[in-house]
Amino acid sequence: MRRLVQGNEAMFFGAVRAGAEFFAGYPITPSSEILMLAAEHANRHPKFKFVQSEDEISAGNAIMGASLAGAKSFTATSGPGFSLMQEAIGYGHQAEIPTVIINVQRVAPGTGMPTMPAQQDIMQSRFGSSGDYYPFVFYPNSVAECYKYTMVSFNAAEESESPVVLLSDAYLGHLNEVVDFHCIKLPRAVRRKRAPLGTGQRLFTGLVHDEQGRPRTADAETCKRWHVRVSDLHTKVSNRYIDFEFQPNLSSDTLIISYGIVSRVLQPLSSQFALFRPIRMFPLLTDEIRRCANDYRNIVVMEANDGQYATIIESVLKRDVHRVPLFGGRINLASARAGLRKALGRMIE
Fold it and tell me: I want to staple 60 with a disulfide (CB 3.0 to 4.6 A). Which of 85, 193, 254, 286 is the partner?
């Protein structure tokens, strides 16, 4: 059945379809609709548990605890709340806890511009917590994809035994589109093999540990083996999620890389430029980006921040890229064209 659905709604519906059983969160625009839907769902379905926590620190730790107890858990927040969750996210990677963190981004830093869209948490989604860890980060660009990639995020979390970040933004979260959920091709929901607490030995501190969960805080070899094991697992899982969109244009000398809502804004320019859209933001689609960039003299990264993803693309391609930042929630075709004219030094139709 076709129906009008908002992006935030679609993410919640996708979580339910994935088998989510626990939500903890704190209200923050522009993600609050997800929390409200979770509260309403818990009222109608007693097996689904809901906690409105006192802050995002508590919410982050609550979803970790729920996951350790065996529940599929998730939260939804925006930039300031995501910042407060970083300690819990790092703990989740060390303790190998599958869970999903939805981040509906807004203008930052600090409390920034609460209702205005941005893409300013790209670096934080990859490098926000301390230490070496290997997060999966997905970023859809439509309401239908919000539904699909919420389920994908839960599967990736279960398979990689780690927290997964699902990015959105104020435009995408509040975008309304007509969607038929029955026509969206979805993967089968995945359930972890590891037993929850109370059924056998299971690590639940943030300490370096061996494969039996025993802390080994003074053993460098154990630390190395942990990194190799976790890195190998994430590499194996990432091979199942090679998610991107590429529209070549060999009549052009320019490839534009964009993601999320910005990629939607740029679609009218596909007749003039090649377009590359990563959906799996991290682990980085290194081989795919290099292969698609080979035929183009100019690489432009357009994003609603001051070149966060562009910095990463430069390091991968080992060449200069043009940066076109879209600031202050002004994510529209006119500002994109103006930025391209400035970057490329020519008129853009």
Answer: 85
